[in-house]
Design goal:
With 147 residues, the chain is α+β, with helices and mostly antiparallel strands. The chain is 14% helix and 33% strand. A three-stranded antiparallel beta sheet has the order 5-6-7, covered by helices on one side.
Amino acid sequence: MMSKSMSISVNGQSQVPPGFRFHPTEEELLQYYLRKKVNSIEIDLDVIRDVDLNKLEPWDIQEMCKIGTTPQNDWYFFSHKDKKYPTGTRTNRATAAGFWKATGRDKIIYSNGRRIGMRKTLVFYKGMNIDSMTTLFPLRMSPFMRW
């Protein structure tokens, strides 16, 4: 008989069967994974890690959020939005080596014609000013959802 819990991780590292592919749609990420995470409901196959974007550099996220052993182009993780100032609304996107900057327009994510969230694209810059060197670490995130 199969155990009810299907979390596949050992010592905090994702352990999935050979050939496992994780390619959820944006709708699935919001409606299933993020909704359960926000409501503290157990996720059947727990392969999305919790990370702190302000304490990790993008090159560390790739290794930490790797699923299985095959090469990946996408990494999935949960991260809390950090405020720059305790009473303000500005988001803190700085790390020790640089910062994440929003770029482009936010993309609206729909489910059955209903708006359920937004996708924001962030790009990592090494250094601490806008003239810093851009790196090849674009990050597409869904900062909120509605239901």
